[in-house]
Amino acid sequence: MNASHTAPPATSVQKFDPDFRGEQPEPVLLATIQRLENETRALRFSRFGQEDAIALGLLLVNLGISRALPIAINIRREQHILFHASLPGATPDNETWIERKSRTALRYCEPSLLVGLRGRVGGGRLEDNGWFDEKLFASHGGAFPIHVRGTGVVAAVTVSGLPQQADHDLVAEALRSVVN
User: Fold this and answer.
1) Mean pLDDT of the chain
2) What contacts 165, CB < 8 A, 6 or more positions away?
3) What digits encode the pLDDT tens for the residues 73-101?
4) What are phi and psi of 98, to 5 degrees?
5) Is 178 a residue whose pLDDT tops 90?
6) H or E stretch covering 175
7) pLDDT digits (tens, 9 = 90+) for 100-147
């Protein structure tokens, strides 16, 4: 079994692992949700246009290349693709994940990881609910809504190819670099 899927001892748990299927302390889940809510509120733009999408996309490409990450990157407004790149090692499956994670971030106006973690409060998973269509949506990390202050969500930036927490963290790192 991969080490990332083995639960750490209870005394060392400080971060919720969204890929671990076993039980994890609810207070750790709630603290992670709070951290993501704060991050979402902090990473808002004063404006966001196509030139900003290109700059953000190129930043993610540069981060991915410099770290040899097998990722696909997408920035979109619903069906309008503003930026897309597929780095060495990315697969066609990443495109499917991008579609579903982006749709989740745009539908719920929250990072796809946050949507998924909220679904785990009280046990279970969001996917266990009959109303959550896994063919259209994915509650896995990697998609982050582009929120413009005074306007709302105008786009989503998505990375796919890494474990979901790493996908999310890469997007958040890039957003912290460019939020205006």
Assistant:
1) 89
2) 17, 18, 19, 113, 141
3) 999 998 899 999 999 999 999 999 999 99
4) -60, -45
5) yes
6) helix 164-178
7) 999 999 999 999 999 999 888 877 666 666 667 788 889 899 999 999
Tokens found for residue 46: 């004063």
How far CA 143 is from CA of 27, 32, 81, 108, in Å, comes to 24, 17, 14, 11
Calpha distance 157→48 (Å, rounded)? 12
CB-CB contact of 52 with 60 (8 Å): no
Maximum C-alpha span of the chain: 47
Q: Tell me how far apart the alpha carbons of residues 45 and 79 are, in angstroms, rounded to a whole number.
A: 21
Q: How far apart are CA 50 and CA 76, in angstroms?
A: 10
Calculate the CA 85 to chain-centre distance. Answer: 16
What are the two backbone dihedrals, phi and then psi, of residue 58, each rounded to the nearest 5 degrees?
-65, -35
Please tell me the distance from the alpha carbon of residue 32 to that of residue 113, in angstroms, as a whole number: 10
In sequence order, what DSSP letters do the residues of 88-103 get, joined into one string? TT--HHHHHHHHHHHH
Instruction: Give the pLDDT band of residue 11 (cuts 50, 70, 90).
Output: very low
